[in-house]
Specification:
Layout (H helix, E strand, L loop, with lengths): L4 H20 L2 H5 L1 H8 L3 H25 L5 H20 L4 H15 L2 H12 L5 H9 L1 H18 L5 H20 L16 H12 L2 H34 L3 H8 L1 H19 L3 H22 L5 H29 L6 H97 L1
Helix pairs in contact: 1-7, 1-9, 1-10, 4-6, 4-17, 5-6, 5-10, 7-17, 8-14, 8-16, 9-10, 9-13, 9-14, 12-13, 12-16, 12-17, 14-16, 15-16, 15-17, 16-17
Length: 442
C-alpha cells in the first residue's frame, strides 16, 4: 500500500514544520547570548555552558532515540516533546533565574532529541523513492527557516528592549505546531508506520549485508566529520554576534540581524550538496572537497581578522556557514536516505546527528573559553586546522577506496586471464594428444 502524492506532500510539510519550529525553541538562547552576558554579568564560558548542556543532552539523546525510535508512537511522543519544550521556553520568559537555565536547557535538549531521527524514519517509511530527494531538500531548509525565525524575532525584540519575548514566541509556536502534528499525523501516514513494530528479518539481513559492504566504515568517517563540522557551523552561529560586536564594533541588534543570514544562506549550501550528490556519489570525497574551501576561508579570517572590513568578514562567515551546512546535509539527510535499503534510516540519522551535536556541545563552551584566552583570531585558527585535517583525511580515505577497487578489478581481471590461459593450455594439450593418437593409428 502506498500513500497518495497529496498525502506524501502534506507529510513532508508537517515534518518540515515540526523541525523548523523546534529551532525556535532551542536557538532563542543562542540568538540573545550577548544580552545574557550583559544582563547577568557572566563570562563567555559561563554563558556558553547553557548551550553546551543543551547540545550535550541533544547529542546523547539522538543516539538513544535513533535506536529506539522505531518503537515510538510518533503521533503522541513527538507532540509531547514539542509541548514540554514549549513549557521550558515559557518558564524562561516567566522569569526563571539564570542559575536554573542550564538545567532547563539540558532537559530541553533531551526532549528535542526525539524529533530528528523519528521524522527521518517517518519519511523513510511513508514516501515513495522518487520523493526522497524532495524530502532531503525540504528537511535541509529547516535549520535556515527555524534559525531565521528565531534570530529575526530576537533582532526585533532587541530593538524594543525585550529580548526575553523570544522565549514567549518560541513557546507559543512549539505548542501550536505540536498540536497540529498530533491532530493530522494519523491521516497522512501508513498504519504500519505508527509505532510498536518489531525488527523484521529482512532488515537484519540488510544490516548484515551492509556490514560486509563496509557501510559502517563510511559511517564512522562521516561521524568524525560530523563532530568537527558542527563545531565550526554551530560555533560560528552561536558566537558571530559577539565576534561582530567585539572585533568590529557592530551594535547588538545589527550583529544579531547579520548573524541570522548565516543559516538562511546556508540553505544554498544544503541545496548545493543535493546537486553535487547527483554527480558525486562518494559522500566522504564530497565532504572533503567542501572542507578545502572552509580551510581557505577560515585561514583568511584568522590572518586578517582585525584588519578585514566588516563586510568582507561577514561574507566569509556566510560562505563558511554555506559550506558547513552543505556537509551537514550530506551527513544527516543524504546519507540516511542513500543507505535506506541497507540500514534503518532513523537509526543512522540519529547516530550521525548525535555526533553532530558532540561538535555543537564543544562549540559553545569550548570556543567561548578559547576566545577568552586567545581572542577570536585563535578560534579561526582552530577552524582552519580542523577543516584542513578533515580534508586530508577524506582525500586519503577516498584515494584508498579507489585504490582498493582498482586492485580488486585487476585481481579479477588477472584471474580471468589466468583462467583463459589455463583453458588454452588444456585445449592445446588435448589437441596434441589427439594428434599423437592419430599418428599412432596411421
Amino acid at each position: 500500500m502506498e500513500l497518495s502524492e497529496k498525502k506524501q506532500k502534506i507529510l513532508v510539510f508537517l515534518c518540515w514544520l515540526m523541525y523548523s519550529a523546534a529551532y525556535c525553541g532551542r536557538y532563542g538562547y543562542n540568538a540573545n547570548i550577548n544580552f545574557v552576558i550583559s544582563d547577568f554579568g557572566v563570562t563567555h564560558a559561563e554563558a556558553g555552558l547553557v548551550a553546551t548542556l543543551f547540545f550535550f543532552a541533544y547529542g546523547a539523546g539522538q543516539v538513544v532515540n535513533g535506536i529506539l525510535c522505531r518503537y515510538y508512537n510518533k503521533r503522541y511522543v513527538l507532540g509531547g516533546a514539542m509541548a514540554i519544550s514549549a513549557v521550558i521556553n515559557l518558564a524562561v520568559f516567566a522569569g526563571a533565574g539564570f542559575a536554573s537555565w542550564k538545567y532547563l536547557w539540558l532537559i530541553n535538549g533531551f526532549v528535542q532529541s526525539v524529533l530528528w531521527s523519528s521524522l527521518v524514519l517517518v519519511l523513510g517509511e511513508n514516501l515513495s523513492s522518487h520523493n526522497f530527494e524532495k524530502a532531503v531538500f525540504a528537511m535541509s531548509t529547516t535549520t535556515a527557516a527555524g534559525t531565521f525565525l528565531s534570530y529575526g524575532c530576537s533582532a526585533l525584540f532587541a530593538l524594543w528592549g525585550g529580548y526575553k519575548y523570544t522565549f514567549l514566541f518560541g513557546g507559543v509556536l512549539l505548542a501550536a505546531v505540536g498540536a497540529v502534528w498530533t491532530a493530522f499525523y494519523g491521516s497522512v501516514t501508513l498504519k504500519s508506520s505508527r509505532g510498536g513494530q518489531k525488527t523484521p528479518v529482512s532488515e537484519r539481513q540488510n544490516t548484515e549485508r551492509a556490514l560486509r559492504r563496509g557501510i559502517f566504515v563510511v559511517a564512522a568517517v562521516l561521524a568524525v566529520f560530523a563532530v568537527a563540522n558542527n563545531l565550526i557551523k554551530d560555533g560560528l552561529t552561536t558566537w558571530a554576534p559577539s565576534i561582530l560586536k567585539e572585533n568590529y564594533g557592530v551594535s547588538d541588534s545589527l550583529s544579531i540581524f547579520i548573524t541570522l543570514f548565516l543559516p538562511v544562506l546556508g540553505v544554498f549550501g544544503a541545496t548545493f550538496a543535493v546537486l553535487l550528490n547527483r554527480k558525486v556519489k562518494n559522500l566522504v570525497f564530497l565532504s572533503a572537497a567542501l572542507f578545502v574551501f572552509v580551510f581557505a576561508l577560515s585561514l583568511a579570517v584568522a590572518l586578517c581578522s582585525k584588519s578585514m572590513p566588516v563586510v568582507v568578514a561577514s561574507a566569509c562567515f556566510v560562505l563558511v556557514s554555506c559550506l558547513t551546512s552543505a556537509v551537514n546535509n550530506v551527513i544527516t539527510s543524504i546519507a540516511p536516505f542513500y543507505y535506506k535499503d541497507k540500514l534503518n534510516p532513523g537509526a543512522l540519522s540519529g547516530v550521525l546527528n548525535g555526533f553532530c551535536y558532540v561538535g555543537s556541545t564543544i562549540s559553545s563552551y569550548g570556543l567561548g573559553a578559547v576566545s577568552d584566552r586567545y581572542g577570536w583570531s585563535g578560534v579561526f585558527v582552530l577552524f582552519s586546522v580542523l577543516s584542513g585535517v578533515l580534508a586530508v583525511i577524506g582525500g586519503a580515505f577516498s584515494a584508498a577506496g579507489l585504490f582498493g577497487k582498482r586492485r580488486k578489478k585487476l585481481t579479477a581481471e588477472g584471474k580471468d586471464i589466468g583462467g583463459a590461459e589455463k583453458r588454452l593450455d588444456e585445449n592445446a594439450a588435448c589437441e596434441e594428444q589427439g594428434t599423437n593418437r592419430a599418428e599412432e593409428e596411421k
